[in-house]
Design a protein that fits this description.
Number of strands: 3
Helix content: 40-55%
Strand content: under 5%
Largest sheet: 3 strands, antiparallel
C-alpha cells in the first residue's frame, strides 16, 4: 500500500486483535493506534475480564512453535505503525497482543499456519504491511468515502469469486459468534458488536473485522482457511468457542465456565 490514507477503526473482538486504528494521511503504510484510557488496547483481554491473577506468562510459551512465530511476525508489522500523538501505549503491550492473537492461531492447522507465515514473509519482501491493509479494508464499512478515495486504489483488488467465497465463510463465523454469545452471555458482552450493520466510525463489528482480515490472505491461505472452517462446521464445532477457550486458558482460567462465572 503506497499511498496516504486516513480513516478510523476502533475496538476488537476476542477472536480478533488488540487495537483501534486510524490510517494517517501524513504517512505511508501507517495505521494510527488508539488505546483506552488505561493504555490497554480497546476491547482487550483485560477489558473483558478474561485475565486473572494466575494469568499465563506470555514468555512461558514455546517461542519456536509456528503459532508463536506468526504472532511475533504480526507484532513486528504492528510496530511499524505511526500514531498522531506519538507511539500508542498498546504498541508496547506485547502480553495482551500475544494472548489475543495466539488464541486464534492455536486453533489453526500446520498447513494454514505455514501458508499465512509465507504471506507475512512475502508482504515484507514487497514492502506491504498486512496489519495496515487489514484495517484499511475494514474502513469500507466504517468510513466508506475515505476508503474509496484513499484506500481502495492502493490495495490488492479481490475478485468477485473470492468475495463470494469470503462471504460464505463470514456467514458461518458470524453464526458461530452469535451461538457463543447465547451460551456465554457475560463473555459475549465483552466481545465486539456482531454485525456490519452495527458499525459506526468508532465501532467496528466482528463481521467487518473478519472481512478485513480475510481480505489480506493470499489465495492459497484463504483456500486453506475456507477448508478449515468447512471441516469445523461439518463436525459440529464452533471456532469462536475454541478461540475464546484458548483466550481464557491463556488468561489463567480453568475453562470457559469459570471465566463466565467470574465476569
Amino acid at each position: 500500500m503506497n499511498a496516504p490514507m486516513q480513516a478510523e477503526h476502533a475496538g476488537k473482538e476476542f477472536t480478533g486483535e488488540h487495537d483501534s486504528v486510524k490510517v494517517d494521511a501524513a504517512s505511508t503504510d501507517s495505521p494510527i493506534v488508539t488505546c483506552d484510557a488505561n493504555g490497554t488496547p480497546t476491547g482487550s483481554a483485560q477489558d473483558a475480564g478474561i485475565q486473572n491473577d494466575t494469568a499465563t506468562d506470555a514468555g512461558a510459551q514455546d517461542a519456536s512453535s509456528p503459532a508463536e512465530r506468526v504472532v511475533r511476525h504480526e507484532w513486528e508489522q504492528f510496530q511499524l505503525t505511526n500514531n498522531e500523538g506519538g507511539r500508542a501505549a498498546c504498541q508496547g503491550n506485547w502480553p495482551v497482543f500475544h494472548q489475543m492473537r495466539l488464541s486464534q492461531f492455536l486453533t489453526w492447522n500446520a498447513p494454514l499456519l505455514n501458508s499465512y507465515a509465507h504471506d507475512l514473509d512475502e508482504a515484507d519482501e514487497q514492502g506491504r504491511n498486512l496489519i495496515t491493509e487489514k484495517y484499511g479494508r475494514m474502513m469500507a464499512s466504517t468510513v466508506p468515502e475515505d476508503f474509496h478515495r484513499n484506500i481502495e486504489p492502493y490495495i490488492p483488488r479481490l475478485s468477485d469469486v473470492r468475495i463470494t467465497a469470503q462471504e460464505q465463510v463470514i456467514g458461518t463465523q458470524v453464526a458461530w459468534a452469535d451461538d457463543f454469545r447465547s451460551r456465554y452471555p457475560k463473555l459475549g458482552m465483552a466481545m465486539r458488536v456482531l454485525r456490519t450493520s452495527q458499525d459506526t466510525e468508532s465501532v467496528t463489528s466482528f463481521e467487518t473485522y473478519l472481512r478485513g482480515e480475510l481480505g489480506t490472505y493470499s489465495e492459497q491461505t484463504f483456500r486453506l482457511y475456507e477448508t478449515f472452517v468447512a471441516k469445523l462446521h461439518a463436525s459440529g464445532r464452533n471456532l469462536t468457542q475454541e478461540t475464546i477457550r484458548n483466550t481464557v486458558l491463556l488468561g489463567g482460567f480453568h475453562d470457559l465456565e469459570e471465566a463466565e462465572a467470574l465476569q
